[in-house]
Amino acid sequence: MVATGNVIAQSLTLWSERVFPVADLDSTVVDHKVPSSSYDPLQTLRFFAYGVAFSPVSYRWHAFLNARFPLGNIVAGSSKQIAAPPSKMPLSHSTRAVLKRLVVDQTLFAPIATFSFVGGMGVMEGLGPIELAERFRIQYLAVLMAGYALWPAAQLINFSIVPLAYRVPFSSVVGLMWHTYLSWTSARIEAKGAPSEIEQADALGPVVPATN
């Protein structure tokens, strides 16, 4: 799913450059056929490697939340019902458990996951300490805030009605959109080069989509 999100993002980038080409500042000629960038398989490979490395961590985290804040319906990844199914439990108990899971997930795991993405992708790109610090300065908070706009609602559904064994796949489906966004932001940073150039481009206006 992580790699697929990157493929989608790169494909949208190439498509947007064909449909909405940008003329050179020193020329009035606009090329409608040849995009300025090309598909980068190494970028997709980096996203694939990140997904392979981080998915087990994500699953263990969901298992921890399931054990720490039980809803009383699923036994550790199986489909067995225990004595008190959710329909028999007080609504307040289930609601509190779901909200606790959501709060803990978004306050503890979300910042760590964002840190892992920005740092992991930066390391795989071969960034040095100074470049990596600049990448965090530019990308970390933006990615974290974007995540808060998507994941609380998705995880509310995930924690309340999805069995433990299917929570990571459910998150991966939602993550298809999420990783498409991460790929867009990462590729935009890579394409623009130095952080100062990115900030100057942002000051001048929006950039044709190119992305964590």
Per DSSP E runs of 2 or more residues, the count of β-strands stands at 0
Instruction: List low-confidence stretches.
Output: 24-34, 73-90, 194-212
- Share of helical residues: over 70%
Number of helices: 6
User: Biggest sheet: strands, sense, closure?
Assistant: none
The Cα radius of gyration reads 21 Å
Distance between the termini: 13 Å
Mean pLDDT: 76
Q: Which structural class matches the secondary elements? A: mainly alpha
Name the quaternary structure. Answer: single chain
Total individual domains: 1
Beta-strand share of residues: under 5%
What would the principal axes of the Cα set say about the shape? globular
Write the H/E string, N to C: HHHHHH
InterPro entries: Mpv17_PMP22
Family: Belongs to the peroxisomal membrane protein PXMP2/4 family.
Membrane topology: Multi-pass membrane protein
Subcellular location: Membrane
